[in-house]
Amino acid sequence: MRDIRNKEKIMNRKRSKKKSIGISLAVIVILGIIGSVNGEEVETANTPNVTESTEAVLRSAEQEIYTTELETPQEAKTELEEAKPESDNPLMNAKIQIADVMNGTKNEKLGEWAEIQISKEILEEITQEQFSEFCNDVVNESGYNWFTISCEDGTGIQFAGSIPYVSTYGSLDNEGCIAESMGTIMVQEDGKYIYTEVE
């Protein structure tokens, strides 16, 4: 009986050893798999991701393009004006300058006014066609509170409300408005502009 029990004990020990060897092997295999997966993750983490880099470059380029496209309407308008070809009309070639229209206490913007500067000598040589082109293509529907043609001697023409059909000639204040009226320029039924002096 003892022999049988001893044999059973020996067999149980062998089985336990086999089980523990089997378990040890299983643990080693599992650790090996985990290690290789972690190794790949580490390798992947250390390897630059070309796809991500390309996407980052494209994203950066898109942002640059987007930023460039986001201009104020005036910047866009100025760029277009500078890009357009020279005209034989000095009024059309003059650079438009924009200023804010402020309330009486100068703490709130009410709108904008526009101005071009031109010499008195050149203004006196402007033809009916050139003046009409400027009124219809630049002043008309420009959206400014007023549009002024300024001369170096302090006089000029103001289109109140950017209305191209009637304007006032006279001495200007520092905001491009008529300080003292000397005459009126009005379009006639035939499309010609007539200047009438103030009496």
Structural class: alpha+beta
Mean pLDDT: 77
State the helical fraction: 40-55%
Order of helices and strands: HHHHEEHHEEEEE
Termini separation comes to 146 Å
The total of helices stands at: 6
User: Strands of the biggest beta sheet: in what spatial order?
Assistant: 1-2-3-4-5-6-7
Report the C-alpha radius of gyration, rounded. Answer: 42 Å
Q: How many distinct domains?
A: 2
Number of E-type strands: 7
Largest sheet: 7 strands, mixed
Low-pLDDT runs: 40-44, 65-70
Apparent shape: globular
State the oligomer: single chain
How would you sum up this structure, described in words?
The model is unreliable at 40-44 and 65-70 (pLDDT under 50). It contains six helices and seven strands. A seven-stranded mixed β-sheet has the order 1-2-3-4-5-6-7. The chain has two domains: 2-69; 73-197, no CATH class. It has 199 residues and is α+β, with helices and mostly antiparallel strands. The longest helix has 45 residues, at 2-46. It has helices at 2-46, 50-69, 73-83, 90-93, 120-124, 128-139, and strands spanning 97-102, 109-117, 146-150, 155-160, 166-172, 178-187, 193-197.
